Amino acid sequence: MEDIRLNVALLRQRVPHLTSAARSVGLRAATVSNLCTGKIHIGRAEVRTLAALASLAGCTMDDLIIQGGKFEMIETGIKTLDLFAPLTKGGTAGLVARPKMGQLVILAELFFLLRKQGFATALLKPDGRHPEIDDVTEDAEFVCADAEEAFSRLSRIGSTKDVVIAADRSHVTNNEIYRLQDRLREAGVTSLTTLLVDLKGEAVDEELPFGPLETLWQFDADLAVRHVYPAVNAVLSASEILESARADAAHLSVQQKAKRLLRRYKELRFLVQAHGLEALPPQEAQTFIRGELLEAYLTQPLYVAAAFTGKAGTTVALQDALHDVQRILEGAEDHREADQLMYIGQLPH
Questions:
Q1: Neighbour tally for 319: CB within 10 Å
Q2: Three-class SS of residue 75?
Q3: Is 48 exposed, middle or buried, given 0-12, 13-18 or 19+ CB atoms closer than 10 A?
Q4: CA–CA gap between residue 228 and residue 183 (Å, rounded)
Q5: Are 155 and 185 in contact (CB under 8 A)?
Q6: What is the pTM of this model?
Q7: What is the largest CA-CA distance in the chain?
Q8: Where the protein is mainly located, per its record (predicted)?
Q9: Which of 4, 47, 127, 154 has the most crowded CB, counting CB atoms within 10 A?
């Protein structure tokens, strides 16, 4: 039972408007989303849920449930993403954020970093005028006015390069991005990773804003207001890589411990703001301090923002980040102030 997973690609292809379709048969969109990203292992899903999804997709249960295989992670060097919700190579990732929360900065940074790794990067422009994406176009190798242009330019790549394409939610609601994915794969593009953003900020209010995803990055308004960037909510973000049965045990262990710490830290913040740190019992005070350190460590100077922040961009290898987070969890950094860990790469030694 551990080596099975949901056929997310098939669901995307067969059920373009999964949120409304799921509700029409009595399923909670959040449950479907958690099954797709792996937050809920398919072995724990109710049979009626899987049967309903198979019916929606017009397929058999054997088609819907497939052998898990090994997911391949794209290591970006962005600590929060790699640690908590790794990007799945060949999968679809959704960035859920309201405007001004930094999703386009992350998108530009991903383009910048992935081009350095040899990826072909493409941006499918949304309809209408969106000046906010102008900065992103600088780091895209291909800027395509529509799906036809994207197909024409990317289909020539075939299997010679890994491709990452970004699109707005408007291309999801009309199913254009999924038709483009299918056409490109049929044309021989063997490695196609898709990044979905929401320029209007409407996705925050939807339970399943982009349909089935392999990776979900949920942005946090509280972090953005406090200028804690990248403002990605590590607790709510998810990836099927870490939720699968074949996840790296050491990575999963650190991720789960760090999520528990951040979850409790966020709860304690309200108490500390109201009554001060001294009002907490000693054990809870220690939890708060380590959570504060971890939150600070997860900030990172980005290459594409260097001109605005005055800080040179950095990347951190996953194994180095895991080592650093483990030190924070164990209390080895308790002697430091949170400010010392803001906008650094690795921990200072």
A1: 12
A2: coil
A3: exposed
A4: 39
A5: no
A6: 0.87
A7: 63
A8: membrane
A9: 154
pLDDT over 90 percentage in the chain: 63
- The gap from C-alpha 1 to its chain's centroid, in whole angstroms, comes to 26
Per-residue pLDDT tens over the stretch 186-207: 999 999 999 999 998 887 877 7
CA angle 327, 251, 325 (to 5 degrees): 20
Query: Could you tell me the residue ranges of all domains in the chain?
Result: 4-67, 92-213, 249-341
The pLDDT of 129-155, averaged and rounded, is: 92
Residue type, 247: A
Whether pLDDT at 172 is above 90: no
Write out the two tokens for 265.
């830290």
Return the CATH class of domain 4-67. Answer: mainly alpha
- Which uninterrupted H or E stretch holds 327? helix 318-330
User: Could you tell me the two tokens for 140?
Assistant: 């895209």
Give the residue among 259, 256, 240 at the shortest CA–CA distance from 42: 240
Work out the average pLDDT over 323-345. 97
Angle between helix 249-275 and 282-297 (nearest 10):
120
Instruction: Find, among 182, 179, 216, the residue nearest to 196 by Cα.
Output: 216
pLDDT in tens, 27-40: 888 888 888 877 77
State how far the Cα of 122 lies from the Cα of 125, in Å rounded to an integer: 9
249-341 folds as 1.10.1140
3-state secondary structure 216-250: EEEECHHHHHCCCCCCECCCCCEEHHHHCCCCCHH
> Contact, 312 vs 112, CB < 8 A?
no
Task: Tell whether the model's pLDDT for residue 93 goes beyond 60.
Answer: yes
**Residue of 204, 213, 205, 208 whose CA lies nearest to 239:** 213
For 151, the token pair is 């197909």
76 dihedral zone (left: phi>0; alpha: psi -120 to 50; beta):
alpha
